[in-house]
Design goal:
two-stranded antiparallel ribbon; 4 helices; about 170 residues; Nuclear Transport Factor 2, Chain: A; alpha+beta
């Protein structure tokens, strides 16, 4: 199996909760609401962990390992060590910009199954003095693992582009 095909198969398993498509049960409104609340809490945890520069939390608690990144050359699976080095580099770059914190206000949560969802929206990065550094659009594919909800893949989106559902 090629690496790209393996990545696609792994992402499909992540997104479908490792169950065949036919096995996915129709969720009740209460079940959907519960998943939305859990994923919203996980997205908030991401924000707090990222803004707090908690490197260990990012690769041990926020991201699944492996996770996937979708770039110009397609999907790439990355282990925890690579997630760690990626965030080390991000934090160095942000320190040069006098980064203080990020906001990810009102993300749209699309529930795909009882074990998978996407959080999408605009996020802002701010300097210590409150000045806006950047506003970008992003989506995060979440999967429910035995340890809780984890980011399976971050998706960088075109500015002002958001994933909508229903």
């Amino acid at each position: 199996m090629t690496y790209r095909l393996m990545a696609a198969a792994l992402m499909s398993a992540f997104c479908l909760g490792a169950q065949p498509v036919a096995a996915q049960a129709v969720m009740s409104a209460d079940e959907v609401a519960k998943v939305k609340a859990e994923v919203a809490a996980a997205a908030q945890d991401y924000l707090v962990t990222f803004s707090g520069r908690d490197l260990k939390g990012m690769y041990e608690r926020i991201y699944a390992s492996p996770s996937a990144v979708f770039g110009p050359n397609g999907a790439v699976l990355i282990p925890a060590e690579k997630t760690k080095s990626n965030y080390e580099a991000i934090y160095v770059d942000l320190a040069k910009l006098e980064y203080d914190h990020s906001d990810f206000k009102n993300p749209v949560i699309c529930v795909l199954s009882a074990n998978s969802a996407i959080a999408s929206g605009a996020f802002q990065r701010y300097k210590k003095d409150g000045t806006l550094i950047a506003e970008q659009s992003a989506a995060f594919v979440y999967g429910k693992t035995p340890e809780g909800w984890r980011v399976m893949a971050p998706l960088s989106l075109q500015k002002n582009k958001h994933i909508t559902c229903d």
